[in-house]
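Let's practice the habit of predicting before peeking. Look at the sequence and jot down your guess about where helices and strands might fall. Then scroll down.
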Amino acid sequence: MVAAKWGATGATQAQPQTQAASSSKAIRPHRAPGGCAHVCPFAGPFGCSMLLASPTNNQEPEMIPRLYLPPDSGATTDPTLTGASLPLSKEQSHYLARVLRLEEGAALVVFDGCGGEWEATFLPPATAHIGTPTGRNPESPLDLTLACAIGKGDRFDWVLQKATEAGVTRIVPLLTRRTQVKIEAGQKEERKLERWQAIVMEAAEQSERTVIPEIAPPITPSRLDLSIPTLVAFERGGRPMEQLLADIPTGPLQIAIGPEGGWDPEEVADLSGRGAHLLSLGPRILRMETAALAVVALAQALRGDWR
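Done guessing? Here is the structure:
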C-alpha cells in the first residue's frame, strides 16, 4: 500500500507500505513534487484532507480521509485513546456519509493538532472509532518562532502557509511602525486571528504535520519576548545565520522579520539593546515574505530536520 495526501496546492505520493491503512502498521506518507490539485471542502477548525492508498491486485485506488479532531473534541496524544469513539463535526460526518458515501468500518486517519495521529474507522452517522497510533513524527526538533510584520494584501497569508509547511512552532504577527496594515482590537482582531488559524490549520493538513502551529495575537516589537535567543533580519548589517548560531546554544530560537520599507531605527535599537542578534540575509534587499521563508529554511537546514 502507499499513502499520499491531497492538499490545497498539490497531490503527493507515498512510499510503499506492507499493510493496509486499517492495520496496526504506521502510515508513513512521502511527499513528491508535482501532481494535480484537490481542494478540501472543509478547511477550518474541523477540517479534512485525503490520503491516497495505491491499488492492489489491479483494484481501484482507495481514498482514505484524514480528519482533524482538536483536543476539545476528546482527542489527546495519550496512546490510551485507542479504542475510544469520538464524535465528528456536522461537516465532517456529512462529507464522509453523504459525499464520499463511506460505509461502516471505512478506514480513516485522525490527528489532534498536538502531535497525535491515529488510524481509525468510520461509524455512521457521526463517529470515529480510534485505532492504534500511526507512529509518525513529521515535526522538526527545532522549536522555532517566527515573528513577522504583517504585510499588505495576501502576503501575510502566504507567510503563514509556507512557514507552517516549513515546520515553524509558532508565529507572532508584528505591528511595526512601518506596518501599513492596521488592526483594531476587538472583533476585527478576533476575525483576523480566526482567519489566520484556518490558514495554518489547512497548511498543516496539506503538509501532513501532526502539530498545528500556535498564532499569537498581534503585538509591537517592543513587546516581543526576547527570553529565547532572537535573530532580527536586518537589511543594513548583521552577521550570517551560521555564524550567529555558532555562538547560541542548541534550543528554542526566534527570528524576527520587518515590514515593507524595513525596520524603524528605533525598533532595531530597542531589539538589539535587549539582547537580539542582527541577522544578515546578504547584499540584496528581500521582500518581507521572501525573507520570512528564507530564514525559516536556513534555520531548518542548520538546526532543524533539513540536515
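How did you do? The helical segments are 90-99, 155-166, 187-206, 241-246, 265-273, 288-303.
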